[in-house]
Design goal:
With 88 residues, the chain is mostly helical. It has a domain of 56 residues. The longest helix is centred in the C-terminal third of the chain and has 10 residues.
């Protein structure tokens, strides 16, 4: 049996307000780490995300806006697709 999952992701007001982006650790680092070339490592970006206070808001934003590229909220595009389908 597959657990219930939302058909869409409802965001809280803090997520729809882009102010969270100003507090994101990625805003203070090299953006290329979050958008690696195909086959490039995502390890550094994911490490930065682990310590970020707005990681959840970032992931919710990426899911709600169907971001197809880069690391958002500590997940790759493939991982976000799997999350939406309820696989992870």
């Amino acid at each position: 049996m597959v657990p219930d999952r939302p058909d869409r992701y409802d965001l809280d007001p803090a997520t729809t307000d882009d102010q969270w982006q100003e507090r994101a650790l990625c805003a203070q680092t090299d953006p290329e780490a979050f958008f690696p070339e195909k086959g490039g490592s995502t390890r550094e970006a994911k490490r930065i995300c682990l310590g970020c206070e707005v990681r959840d808001a970032c992931l919710e934003y990426a899911l709600a806006h169907d971001e197809r590229f880069g690391i958002w909220g500590g997940l790759s595009e493939r991982e976000r697709r799997r999350l939406k389908r309820g696989i992870i």
